[in-house]
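Hi,

I'm pasting everything inline rather than attaching a file, because the server keeps stripping attachments. The sequence lines come first, and each chain or strand is labelled.
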Amino acid sequence: MKLSTRSPRWLALAAVLVVGPVAGCSAGSLGSSEEESGGGTTITWLTGVDETAQATAEAIVAAFEDANPDITVKLDGKPAGGEGDNLVKTRLQTGTMPDVFDYNSGSLFQQIAPANNLAPLDDSVVGAVDDTFFPQVSVDSTVYGVPYGTAFGGGVMYNKKVFDQLGLTVPTTWAEFMSNSEVIKAAGIAPVIQTYQDTWTSQLFVLGDFHNVAAVQPTWAEDYTANQAEYATDPVAMAGFQHLQDVHDAGYENADYASTKLEDGMRQLAAGTGAMYPMLSANITTLQSVAPEAVADIGFFALPGDDAASNGLTAWFPNAVYIAKTTEGEALEASKKLLAFIASPEGCEAFGSASDPTGPYLVEGCELPADVPPVTKDVQTYFDEDKQSPALEFLSPVKGPNLEQITVEIGSGIRSAADGAALYDEDVEKQAQQLGLEGW
Amino acid sequence: MSTTLRQASPTATSRPARGRPRTRRSPYPGWFYLPAAVVYGVLFLVPTLASFYFALTRWTIFTSEFIGLGNFVQFFQEPALTKGFVNTFVYAALTSGAKVVLGLALGMLLTSQIMGRGYLRAVIFFPVLVSTVGVGITFRVLMNPTKGAINAALGVVGIDGPGWLVDPSIALLSVAAVDIWKGVGLATLIYMAGIVSIPKEYYEAARVDGAGSWTLFRNLILPLSWPATSTVVTLSLIGGLRSFDLIWSMTRGGPGFTSDVIASVIYKQYQAGFYGLSTAGNVILFIAVTAIVLPLTRFLARKEVEL
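And the predicted assembly:
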């Protein structure tokens, strides 16, 4: 029973300790990406593993396969959020990425080393794509992706029935937002829904507030990229963090905010037990899948700032579909056909048949149908009135990975807004250094 | 024949006397060790040494930029790190302490003459066989504050259960409790082996001297099962210090950063693409674990008594 402490075993053990945590995150099982079936080409498309994402991709694949009978597209699933990012990065860097995958545009796109990992696309593929989208999927002048879905907004989904019953109007200043919340709380309804089991949902107060920052300081994003501006020392930029703390301090969150997920949040919003849910308008698809009967009752407004005159929407560009650089030969040709199909009116139609559009398509010739949900109409209104500006992640590559943990802490009262903002400033520094940006 | 024997024996005995004890030759030539050495070198030595170098760089899979000790400076400035270190030590101390106490108690119970001993032994060991991530996900569901079975059961007897994994003050303790539940079977097994290997004569001698149950435990079982204790402490302390899978599957270090341990801090840095930084973190974890466990095992080994 004596435990040996001689050195060789210790070395072996130590090596396991050093290597262990890194080795713990290998990508899951991989299907073979190229299989010949009956003379045609088979390609694999990695998309979200959730029901909505799979259904949408299936609809597009069905329409695409009808138009291209010699190509078969198989679907593979990846988780959302940080874990999905990790999987995409790991697969790209190990050369095990399926032929085609969809992923964020903007700053997250810049982080996957597009020039090294993605196949460049020419005009035959991206010809119909709206010019405004190119900066989000390009390095220098090379384009790597086509828009997947519609643009959307970051703001607040609200239950219109609750607002009507209590005689409330859509707030255009933060003060109105808080006074509305007080009335809602007095009526026994949770004013603000938060769902911290899906940590990413906690970031909306900060990310969705950027239109208000840019309205006051138009050059903020550039200064931020150049390390000339930061959240903690700038009261305007800090406001998003502060608003989250205000909501928690006032007790406006739903009681079970710490243990609920996105779907539960949507159910609460649909049932009217919660009134306002800071969310991306794109997540209307989640609402449609968990509570389709309530879609007509839910509207959308931009997160308000201090000034009603500059009230507007923080807008997100859609994700994009990319081809991995490891894709070659027939599979590459087939993949390009698939991308060209996605960026065409037929592709938009197939997309719209599976999940309702959440804002404008960024493809020429694609029109929104007349019967879109109110949330989409509200988002479209901000675009029509040109009361929108892009989210920070489309203007600056600097985005710290820990924002969602920090905002969970602020929204749970574990950390103060000032503390959280300062911590986030340190977090982005690492990102900027890893990207090798000037001035960090 | 007899002369030869007589001549040979003095030489044989005189060798050690002359003071140059020749090392006994191994029956195998040196290159027999080569395959093992290659495997060990490629899989353990090279990565370990490489990680020491890459900890000094900011790297991606394609390039690396030498930045000296920059990663270490940044790692130690990481605010989540202090929390991570404290949590790691709390977690390791708590789980290994509890495994010793519970393992010894259960070990004594299951080596005594009780009903259904074989069945009970199997039951206590069963959680060890289940996948850690599976256990983590199961308990995450059971510990859900509103819909989980644990709080539902507590509700029946009128207790308003806490948010086990979402209350920042108890999230880490909840995970530690599950770790103990899962690991105590192994500790029990080791203790059972330790207790069973104590010769019966010792008990008989002690009984003749009039020792009661407590004296028997205090002066016989406890010291003579010390090798078991040191094994349990070492294994569970190392396990606790580098624990990751259970914490990640249950809380992901949350809420916020409140149940982060060093390994999860490192994992998140790797996930965020800060490869150099996370390599530096692994080197620090390696040094910290060695610095704690090495002296501890020396200490435990010295306290062992021969049977």
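Chain A touches chain B through 51 residues (CB under 8 Å).

If the labels don't parse on your end, tell me and I'll reformat.
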